[in-house]
Specification:
about 15% strand; TIM Barrel; seven-stranded parallel β-sheet; alpha/beta; four-stranded antiparallel β-sheet
Length: about 325
């Protein structure tokens, strides 16, 4: 079976001969692993089962000051200490200038030629994913400021509704383009959680976010694609609502904040999981044997009836031990 077929069978909750997996790295850790293996091409030899399409036009991010990069929404990110994303350092949108702000043109962001060429590079026949990150709440707070957005969700619902609707309209145009490609699934990223629960609380999530994700998920489903969500933190109280909205796969499935084994028992027949390998405890602080045992238990228990793509709970952050990362890779490859 091709890797794409194995993932599809897994997502239909059939047990395959192997549990599919996908390993991603932050940039500093990737360089550490290049040195560890003494191989600049080590990443191509991991055997990952997922393939993420590159579709954004080149040059959308511009360095406007030393270490400060501006994205196509006008948001500026200070990246001296975190060059994978950065820290927002400006505010482009307020309740006073909403009408004046112009969203980027999706046609100027989406590069169809690049996407087609990218898909052609999927020579290992992996499960192909179109990734739309910062899809709603994250996009809004980067534009307005986290505190400002949370306060407005209580005090100025009209402003938040208007902003979320504009973001959603932009997203729908991008999703239409992504779903027009020969991809198998769409990953919609939007972090709602912290270590102890939802950032905005359940009431505001259901009020503002749920109606918009239903619109996005139902569109993706109507095009015959699997729906993935990436949302960090403790958000398992939303699983029923997400399933009802059309979700197929939940990521990153953080074992530090979600009981992954109980979640599998409770939701495993209706939802697949992608992630689960501890990036906060085991990879940075465990031993090699603890890492192998941790990964093997996830494969055996979470993956036993399908519905699981094994992966670190996030792109592996700086601070993880290279020997533990190597042990994880070995365990996943040698199933």
């Amino acid at each position: 079976m091709e890797k794409r077929d194995i993932v599809k069978k897994t997502l239909e909750h059939y047990r395959c001969s192997v549990v599919p997996y996908n390993i991603g790295f932050t940039s500093r850790v990737k360089q550490q692993m290049v040195q560890y293996y003494n191989d600049p091409d080590f990443e191509k030899k991991l055997g990952n089962y997922l393939y993420f399409v590159e579709w954004t036009r080149d040059g959308l991010w511009k360095e406007v000051e030393p270490y400060v990069w501006e994205d196509h929404f006008g948001v500026r990110w200070y990246r001296k200490f975190h060059d994978d994303v950065g820290t927002v350092c400006n505010r482009v949108l307020s309740e006073e200038n909403t009408d004046e702000y112009e969203f980027p043109d999706p046609d100027s962001v989406f590069d169809e030629h690049k996407a087609v060429e990218s898909i052609a590079q999927n020579i290992d026949k992996c499960f192909c994913i179109g990734n739309l990150g910062f899809s709603l709440f994250e996009r809004a707070w980067t534009m307005t400021g986290m505190e400002n957005l949370l306060v407005a969700m209580v005090n100025n619902k009209k402003f938040v509704d208007g902003l979320f609707d504009k973001i959603c309209q932009y997203n729908m145009k991008i999703l239409e383009k992504l779903c027009g490609l020969p991809v198998d699934g769409i990953l919609i990223g939007d972090d709602w959680g912290q270590q102890t629960g939802l950032i905005m609380g359940p009431h505001l999530w259901h009020r503002f976010i749920e109606p918009r994700i239903k619109q996005m998920y139902s569109f993706v489903k109507s095009k015959g694609k699997y729906v993935f969500i990436h949302s960090c933190g403790k958000v398992d109280e939303l699983f029923n609502s997400l399933i009802e909205a059309g979700l197929d796969v939940f990521n990153p499935f953080q074992p530090e904040v979600i009981d992954v084994f109980q979640a599998k028992r409770d939701f495993g027949s209706r939802l697949s999981f992608y992630g689960g390998i501890s990036t906060q405890k085991i990879l940075p602080y465990g031993t090699v044997q603890e890492t192998k045992d941790h990964v093997k238990r996830l494969l055996d228990e979470i993956g036993k009836d399908g519905g699981y793509i094994a992966a670190p709970a996030h792109s592996i952050p700086y601070g993880a031990k290279v020997e533990n990362i190597a042990a994880m890779i070995e365990t996943l490859k040698n199933q």
